[in-house]
Amino acid sequence: MPASPAPLARVLSDLTREGELHEKLPDRAVRCHACGHRCFIPEGRPGICRVRFNEGGILKVPWGYVGALQCDPVEKKPFFHALPGSLALSFGMLGCDFHCGYCQNWITSQAIRDPAAVAMPEEVAPEGLVALARRQRASIVASTYNEPLITSEWAVAVFRVAQESGFLCAYISNGNGTEQVLDFIRPYVTLYKVDLKSFRDRNYRALGGTLRNVLDTIGMLRKKGFWMEIVTLTIPGFNDSDEELTDMARFLAGVSPDVPWHVTAFHKDYKMTDPDPTPARTLLRAAEIGRREGLRYVYAGNLPGEVGDWENTRCPSCGDLLIERRGYQILQDRLTPRGACPGCGAAIPGVWPGGVFNPPRDAGPPEGSRRSDPARQG
After folding, report:
1. Are residues 192 and 217 in contact, defined by beta-carbon separation less than 8 angstroms?
2. Is the distance from CB of 121 to CB of 65 less than 8 angstroms?
3. Could you give the C-alpha distances from 336 to 85, 344, 352, 353, 360, in angstroms and in order?
4. pLDDT at 106 over 70
């Protein structure tokens, strides 16, 4: 790997193999297509993520280890329209293409950049992870804890084995994708969660990305048939204005009114310790904005018992309570075996038990609302 004094970087350089998501260029350079940065990487240098690097004209990528491993309720990812009440074996590697100052998984995501992030890799085979998922009685295998796009070759190796064993596979991602990486993972990944962190390009640039690329990725995920849910960590003074929340909701409704939008509460973490924790009233305000802009499934998350009915799923056609939740716990699930409302029979979009996949409907312009142009957001 390129010269680096960090012992962890030297350890990780041995846990690699030749990557697939790239093109070779003259003078032993490569162009990486794993994330939206599309890094031009000369020989002997790493990409922005610092875990994909050019060694002798060959793109080396992370392989054969995990940096974090846990079995979680699928609602924690969060997916509310995918196998409610099931477990997801969640694994992550190390590194990220962003550098968010409030990252709740900074121990893994910033392990190469920040000496204070101490996470050591543990070698494992795909078969070992799938066997563990089976022992834990999980139904889903998820790549998370760091940015999965930059470790997609390893994720696909795990997911091939998981899929053959009957598991659904998921990405929990910042959404800074490319068409090449989405096509690469599509045969194996059914569920895709995107963090829509802001609707202002200046905020995204401060985090290490661009708004446009995330919005383009959301559009591609919808067109390519992934089941997608969106999460916005609502941070006081950063992205919680009525105007910005309206722009986000309006954009998502333009992708599909059936895209679930989770607005969740910030708490002080990593380097962002100035804003106060997000109060429940902010999540309620954001949820009301989402509903007003035409989204049919809006959820206020991670403040159990403080956000009323916004933890639950209701039928948008007749209003019947379908799935009642408190935090990550399912209190009741009234969906029919075909993923429909038991009251009016309306199909509820999502991925439900028994292999039922009800796709989201196409969008139409909400009445009386203008479309937001993300290119004009400062």
Report:
1. no
2. yes
3. 15, 11, 10, 10, 18
4. no
Q: Is this prediction's pTM over 0.70?
A: yes
- CATH of region 65-358: 3.20.20.70
Over residues 216-267, the pLDDT tens digits come to 999 999 999 999 999 999 999 999 999 999 999 999 999 999 999 999 998 7
Q: Residue 229 in 3-state DSSP? A: strand
- Of 156, 217, 184, the C-alpha closest to 34 is 184
Question: Burial level of 252, CB count in 10 A (0-12/13-18/19+)?
Answer: buried
Q: Which two tokens stand for residue 321?
A: 């309570």
Instruction: Quote the CA–CA distance of 136 and 15 in Å, as a whole number.
Output: 26
Q: Edge-to-edge strand order for the sheet containing 298-301?
A: 68-73, 87-92, 140-143, 168-173, 191-195, 227-234, 261-265, 298-301
CA distance 213 to 35: 10
Domain edges within the chain: 7-61, 65-358
Confidence bin at 12 (pLDDT 50/70/90)? confident
